[in-house]
Amino acid sequence: MARVVIGLSGGVDSSVAAYLLKEQGHEVIGLFMVNWHDTTGTLEGDCPWHDDRTFAELVAKKLDIALHVVDLSEQYRQRVVEYMFAEYEQGRTPNPDVLCNREIKFDVFLKEALKLGADYVATGHYCRKATTLGADGKPHYHLLAGSDPNKDQSYFLCQLTQEQLRYALFPIGDLLKPEVRRIAAEQGLATAKRKDSQGICFVGKVDLPIFLQQKLAKKEGNIHEIKAEWPKFAKRPTYSPSPTLPTDEELAQLSEPWHFTVRDGKKIGTHQGAHFYTIGQRKGLGIGGRKESLFILATDVKENVIYVGEGDSHPGLWRPALRIKPEEIHWVDPDCAMEIGQKRTFQVRIRYRQPLQRATLCRREEGLYILFDEAQRGITAGQFAAWYAGDDLVGSGVIEQ
Q1: Is the CB of residue 129 less than 8 Å from the CB of residue 75?
Q2: Domain check: are 30 and 60 in the same one?
Q3: Band of the pLDDT at 34, cuts 50, 70, 90?
Q4: Strands 343-349 and 384-389: what pairing?
Q5: FRET label pair with 384: which of 39, 65, 357, 368, CA 20 to 30 Å apart?
Q6: Which domain holds residue 57?
Q7: Residue 249 lies in a domain
Q8: Which of 315, 338, 365 delimits the end of a domain?
């Protein structure tokens, strides 16, 4: 029997995870995190954290387990929210949920759990963990996709380290969501029918521009349309999978984001700040009267200009490759790291719930290139690319370009 501290969030997943751990005979302790107090930008009707705490208390009482409360809001603001503001200010689009898991749940929270004498820390994530014995004779930990393909959350944990995984337990990783709901109902848990949380981790659903205006000021700028016939679209090298990889120069060209100037398009409207928008975004432009929707192709925060194109098939939305800087390459198990000059084939996703895409990873001096068999829509700097070998999430990195 182990002492397991579980992050009780007030949701059904962590509730059932706690129940399963107790059924397995572990000593279970609940720990509720208060990570955010500010309601700026929070959409009406979104449950604040004190409702979550009430549900966590009801579940703890039902399961007869102790519940501790810890306020980690200062660390959350410093490590996650300030990072968000800084990234958006630079015209990048961060993923706060990945940061929250790396910096809060499996770092600050883990340390709080260890203070309570935890042998392990558990969460309600839909993912799995496996352990193998390495050539060095030591255990090596693997992060595996959850059994429910509709709920797999391994992507959000793509930055975890061996030390973090050493302590991690994912009790519901082998279950499907309907099974989790059924168990909660059978056990009379208060969270059985509670809706899943949405939006930014621990903040909730927000009006992003209003939320970002806490630090980033409104600034009117122009929206320019780039036509699909823009000559430079046709000049870039194309890529089709073949045994022969592109040259290093071609890899760099294929991964380069599209760059536009105001001379490349025509002004069709205005916006309130380029840093409030992201590549691939369709809503929030306020421009109608088109056969097809307008999509954001690029943002220029220095000149405060947004570039858009009409239609989901616009060539400015698509490219076949991306690059990750050397210092941003992360291997869940460092023994799997690629050496400079190596290439390997993986299944890759560049956003949560995106179907896995076959790609060749090429390690070069200037970083890691990911070359997809098929061009990808809306590759966005600041997001995370994660690569898998089967169910095994092998590594990840922040998309630089």
Answers
A1: no
A2: yes
A3: confident
A4: antiparallel
A5: 39
A6: 3-212
A7: no
A8: 315
Residue-level pLDDT at 288: 84
Nearest to 323 by CA among 350, 283, 358: 350
Alpha-carbon torsion angle 311, 313, 315, 318, nearest 10: 120
Report, as an integer, the average pLDDT of 194-216: 69
How many other CB atoms are found less than 10 A from the CB of residue 287? 14
For 53, left (φ over 0), alpha (ψ -120 to 50), or beta?
Answer: alpha
The CATH number of whichever domain residue 269 belongs to comes to 2.30.30.280
The amino acid sitting at 144 is L
Q: State whether residue 291 is helix, strand or coil.
A: coil
d(CA 297, CA 307): 6
Which DSSP string corresponds to 165-193? HHHEE-TTTTS-HHHHHHHHHHTT-TTTT
Helix (H) / strand (E) containing 87: helix 82-89
Query: What pTM was computed for the model?
Result: 0.92
Residues 71-117 pLDDT 10s: 988 898 899 889 988 999 999 999 989 999 999 999 999 999 999 99
Please give the positions annotated as active site: 100, 201
Residue 4 — φ and ψ, nearest 5°?
-120, 125
Q: In terms of domains, do 200 and 225 share one?
A: no
176, 226: one domain? no
Instruction: Tell me the three state secondary structure of residue 364.
Output: strand
Domain count of the fold of the chain: 3
CA–CA distance from 314 to each of 261, 297, 330 (Å)? Answer: 17, 9, 32
**213: pLDDT strictly greater than 80:** no
Residue 199: its pLDDT value, please? Answer: 57
- Say if residue 143 is exposed, middle or buried (CB neighbours under 10 Å; 0-12, 13-18, 19+): buried
